[in-house]
Amino acid sequence: VVGMQAGAANRAAEVVGMQVGGIFSTASKVQGAQLGTANWADELQGAQIGVINAAGAIQGVQLGLVNYSQSGEGVSIGVINVSPQSHLHLGYAMDELGFHQAILKYSGRYTYTGIRYGYKTDAGTRVHSKVLTLGGYVHFGRFFLNPEAAINYLDKRQFLSRRGPGYLQLKLLPGVRVADWLSLSVGPTLNARLPS
């Protein structure tokens, strides 16, 4: 296909241009873009935008809820990004608001997504902090810089409720890898309260 292929379900050997699928799009080789609910390419040079994206070798970007790539130099941005370079990280943080937080971070080669849960006691009342994060990595040997965006909900009621105020947090976290299992970082955060 040279140009555009559009339909509920698309299949092509090679696409130079765009595949737009309501349910899924699949091709052996894509030079361009795949847009749809589910996208698959054995070899991708360009972009995949959908709920579920999967590619063998990737040079480009995947944007979706779930992204999978077997190899390549691409960037995956989503809630779950799976590749041979993916790692699951567990951690601890204390933030500028005084919350002690447990961290679960799923990282690829250039980006990561994560959740944090924490609490603090304020005037005898426990306040919960629930955070969703999206960040990136810039490496300089042992040193790194992590730009991160997060949505943080604070609540005095329950563990899973979302009735308290929400904050958009933008962070710039320089750090150093001390050992294979330990990294330290610290940096500024910009907090903006979200409308209720």
Characterization of this structure:
The protein is elongated and about 65 Å long. It has strands spanning 2-63, 66-72, 75-77, 80-82, 87-94, 100-107, 111-122, 125-136, 138-140, 143-155, 166-179, 182-185, 189-193. The protein contains no helices and 13 strands. The model has no long low-confidence stretch (mean pLDDT 89). It has 196 residues and is mainly β. The strands form 2 sheets. Strands 5, 6, 7, 8, 9, 10, 11, 12 and 13 form a 9-stranded antiparallel β-sheet that branches. It has a 4-stranded parallel β-sheet with strand order 3-1-2-4, with no helix packed on it. Strand 6 and strand 7 (111-122) form a beta hairpin.
Descriptive labels:
nine-stranded antiparallel β-sheet, 13 strands, about 200 residues
Per-chain topology:
Blueprint: E1 2-63, E2 66-72, E3 75-77, E4 80-82, E5 87-94, E6 100-107, E7 111-122, E8 125-136, E9 138-140, E10 143-155, E11 166-179, E12 182-185, E13 189-193
Parallel strand pairs: 1-2, 1-3, 2-4
Antiparallel strand pairs: 5-6, 6-7, 7-8, 8-10, 9-10, 10-11, 11-12, 11-13
TL;DR of this structure?
This protein has 196 residues and is mainly beta. The protein has no helices and 13 strands.
What oligomerization state is this entry in?
A: single chain
Radius of gyration over all CA atoms, rounded: 20 Å
- Average pLDDT, to the nearest integer? 89
Unreliable spans are: none
Structural class: mainly beta
Q: Percent of residues in helical segments?
A: under 10%
- Strand fraction equals over 45%
How many E-type strands?
Answer: 13
